[in-house]
Amino acid sequence: MFLTENDLNELVAWRRHLHAVPELSGQEAKTAEAVRARLQAAGADRIVSGLGGHGVLGIYDGRESGPTVMLRAELDALPIQEKSELKHRSLVAGKAHLCGHDGHMAILAAVAQNLSQQRLSRGRVALLFQPAEEDGSGAAAVLADAKFEQVRPDFVFALHNLPGLGFGQVSLAEGLVNCASQGMRIRLSGRTTHASNPELGISPKDALARLLLEIPALGHGTELDDDFSMLTVTHARLGEPAFGIAPGFGELWVTLRTCTDVMMERLRLEAEDLVRRVTAGEGLSTEIAYRDVFNHCANDVDAVAHLRSALDAEGVRHSAKGLPLRGSEDFGRFGSRSKSAMFFLGAGKEHPGLHEPNYDFPDQLIEVGARIFIRTIRNLLG
To answer: Residue 345 above 80 pLDDT?
Structure first.
């Protein structure tokens, strides 16, 4: 084991500190500072801060030139109230690390510690702590930042813990591993009036009721293939919560999901056409906007081969079980620049699910995840 018991205890304590003080996408200033201090203590040769927002990059140079390998973890938490009795539970109302990003950061911190103790013989490693993964904006912002040009990784690797998969086991596959998704916000505006004279107003209630039924019906297919699509209503609002007002506006939030970015564009056009058809002749004005835009995530064949070699060397059981996933991940954007691959590390078959209010990252995975990453790095760079 490359980490002593004291090392692991200290990493667990750091992870739990991060868990207690979560910050949302785009607001990760204090988390980023904690990461920067950690990298500095772990002897990073260079530290780049303010990358794509609050992103932090720690760079470790080898003695000779060679490939650049980047590992990515995420900084941000979720806007969900944690419901647990843990001593390290979130101290911030309505915010919590319920996806395990605190654990992913601790894994990269363990890798940094190893790199400081056993310097690379060649190449370099870049440890990226990325902002704003949860809303899909972070990877794009990092790639668009001029400071990222000094890295230009040949390979990019990441992991995500996965409840429902046996503890410490890995799911890994070439090709598609995460679906594309986009949040579609539909606003319908008419004319508000007194509840006693609804005929004097223009209400979006009928159009909203139709869309609630017809938008999900656009989805088709159950297998995750090129024809798969899913539309999930996540929020709906009609007017103000008052008895004296006949509503003049409505809003509908829908998550669009497909296996490919090409299919996503087709689905967007279908959904927008449906909105136009439903609202035609209703006297309503419509506004459609998109947010939380995630491209599909596909693993490179060569990058997967390097991960498989590391998993075999470390004696970690792995298969393609459960892949691809319906859930989205903005890591796929790095594949446009580098050979990239993400693997999924089992958090246990009975472990609470991601984004559930009682979820907590299993601390025992810190050592497992770090071993896999370090073996991958050493195999590539020595």
So the answer is: yes
Q: What is the CATH number of the domain that holds 377?
A: 3.40.630.10
Residue 205's alpha-carbon distances to 33, 239, 254, 280, in angstroms, are 48, 9, 17, 14
Q: Over 90: is that where the pLDDT of 3 sits?
A: no
Q: Are residues 307 and 160 part of one domain? A: yes
Binding site as annotated, residues for Mn(2+): 99, 101, 134, 160, 355
Q: Indicate the DSSP class of residue 191.
A: B
Structural domains in the chain (count): 2
Cite the annotated binding site by residue number: 99, 101, 134, 160, 355
- For 146, how many CA atoms within 13 A lie in the half-sphere containing its CB? 0
Q: Which residues contact 265 (CB under 8 A, 6 or more apart)?
A: none
* Residue 158 sits in the same domain as residue 303: yes
Residues 6+ apart with CB under 8 A from 9: none
Is residue 188 over pLDDT 70? yes
Same domain? For 283 and 306 the reply is: no
2 contact partners, CB below 8 Å, separation of at least 6: 114, 117, 370, 371, 374
For the full predicted model, state whether its pTM sits above 0.85: yes
What residues make up the domain containing 51?
Answer: 5-177+297-381
